[in-house]
Design brief:
By secondary structure, the chain is mainly alpha-helical. About 75% of the residues lie in helices and about 0% in strands. Helix 5 packs antiparallel against helix 8, helix 5 packs across helix 9 and helix 6 packs across helix 13.
Length: about 325
């Protein structure tokens, strides 16, 4: 099996696992969202500590002591991912799986706007059109819900900002996750130790086992995603990113039977239209850049690598 095919299999595996996360967290409803989040942090730290030991990453992590700006950035990243995880768990266990799927559908559009606001990037016409359609979709869904879809917006904004911080810091996946888990572990442990009537050990063997396993369930797809990102092109990862929310949406509608009135279908159709415009624009831009590179090489110049800005094919691991 060649490396590209292996990369696609790893990427598909990661996004399929993320897509089915609602089934996992639904089995943990005996615990509240904060308790589940605390266990997820603690057991993720245990899992990634083992991985860091096996990979021999401790020297590299220890070297970050002399880089306070990087450490501060990782503390911010940890806060953002905690908000994301907590909101996701709350959304799933309050029967809003469809809204969590919406959050991950609109994440690429949020990333585009972060590029404009934070990085002062200029958007192409197709990207502006995608953002405009995305804004209309949120308005339609807000009217349907009778409120802003705050779960979806929180998931999209927290993960978009998380991706931006991680991109700026540029740490290997295992190192970054180890630091993030370490930042969150102390408050998580304090919470669990002071929690009265916690579900750990009192809600059955399966429930307790699933809480412990949440660390592995968190770390494994992230490592698979990292392996995919190192093997396949950005546009490949960009297309794979829709697998997770598609599965979540299907579970919400057809497995958990969450309501989908006509207005909500229209809102989601607009989201999918925006994503279609976004993906088509990114692919067309990449094709043009490659054509320019080929013609430059044919004319005797040096081949120029296609220029793909991060938000053109940006992807963020979900859940």
């Amino acid at each position: 099996m060649n490396e590209v095919r292996r990369g696609y299999l790893l990427g598909i595996g990661a996004y399929v696992m993320w897509g089915f996360f609602p089934l996992y967290f639904k089995h943990l409803q005996a615990a509240g969202a904060v308790e589940i989040l605390a266990h997820r942090v603690v057991w993720s730290l245990a899992t990634v500590t083992l991985i860091a030991t096996v990979l021999g990453r401790w020297r590299a992590v220890a070297g970050l002591r002399r880089q306070p700006k990087r450490l501060a950035a990782m503390a911010l990243a940890a806060t953002l991912i905690a908000v994301n995880w907590g909101t996701y768990i709350y959304g799933v266990n309050s029967s809003r799986v469809v809204e969590t799927a919406l959050g991950y559908f609109i994440t690429p559009l949020v990333v585009i706007m972060l590029g404009v606001v934070v990085l002062h990037e200029r958007l192409r016409r197709g990207q502006w059109l995608a953002v405009g359609v995305g804004v209309v979709s949120v308005v339609v869904l807000a009217v349907d819900y009778g409120r802003l879809p705050w779960i979806a917006l929180t998931l999209a904004c927290s993960f978009g900002l998380y991706g931006l911080v991680k991109k700026r810091v540029g740490l290997p996946p295992a190192d970054g996750l180890l630091l993030e888990s370490a930042v969150l572990a102390l408050p998580a442990l304090v919470y669990l130790m002071t929690l009265r009537d916690g579900s750990f050990g009192s809600a059955g063997t399966l429930h307790t086992s699933l809480l412990v396993f949440s660390g592995i369930a968190t770390v494994v797809p992230l490592m698979m995603f990292a392996g995919a990102a190192n093997r396949i092109p950005l546009y490949g990862i960009g297309m794979l990113q829709y697998i997770g929310p598609i599965i979540q949406f299907g579970l919400g509608v057809f497995w958990f039977h969450e309501p989908m009135p006509t207005a909500r279908w229209i809102g989601f159709a607009l989201v999918w239209l925006a994503l279609g415009i976004f993906s088509a624009d990114g692919f067309a831009h990449l094709t043009r850049q490659r054509s320019i590179a080929v013609h430059a090489a044919a004319d005797g110049g040096s081949p120029v690598a296609p220029s793909v800005r991060p938000h053109d094919t940006e992807t963020s691991p979900t859940a």
